[in-house]
# Entry
Amino acid sequence: NAGVTQTPKFRILKIGQSMTLQCAQDMNHNYMYWYRQDPGMGLKLIYYSVGAGITDKGEVPNGYNVSRSTTEDFPLRLELAAPSQTSVYFCASSPINYGYTFGSGTRLTVV
Amino acid sequence: AQRVTQPEKLLSVFKGAPVELKCNYSYSGSPELFWYVQYSRQRLQLLLRHISRESIKGFTADLNKGETSFHLKKPFAQEEDSAMYYCARSFGNEKLTFGTGTRLTIIP
# Structure
């Protein structure tokens, strides 16, 4: 089992560019999440999904969009990159009532 | 709002000494509490959850509803315990709220 796979691992974007962070899981988990991790700030929830076709905002959704067309995939879209979006992004998935399985993260720098 | 507080950003402990990483949460009904660990260059992984009442890698954590705490403890620290530790809670659904984390360093 691959678990939760995130691509790319690293990316440098220029201000105003767009990109999609990919996340895929092969555990048939209903729930999927996107977090960002900033130094000294812990993990903040950006968006989450409780199943295919259903997404909802987390704590810090501004500047991001998501879609969940299949159970396996949960991509995160940055439309107009800003320096404030420099962070490490983690995708995670979980079955109902259990702990998360995390991806290895994407380190994004916006310059 | 749900809050999880980890008061120590950094904690250094000598090998063989007891370890306690503090975690307090905002009271709201019946929370579910977790500890996650991130070793160097590895992904975040679940260490333990309060509902399991288990010991993982020698760590235990007891939910104290009176003090709204879920401190992580280990009687004898080992060098391989050096990592970033996050306390997290959920309430009524699967969304987790994380604390800011504590970086634990075990001194040989």
Observations:
- Chain B touches chain A at residues 4, 6, 9, 34, 36, 42-46, 49, 86, 94-101 (CB under 8 Å).
- The longest strand of chain B covers residues 83-90.
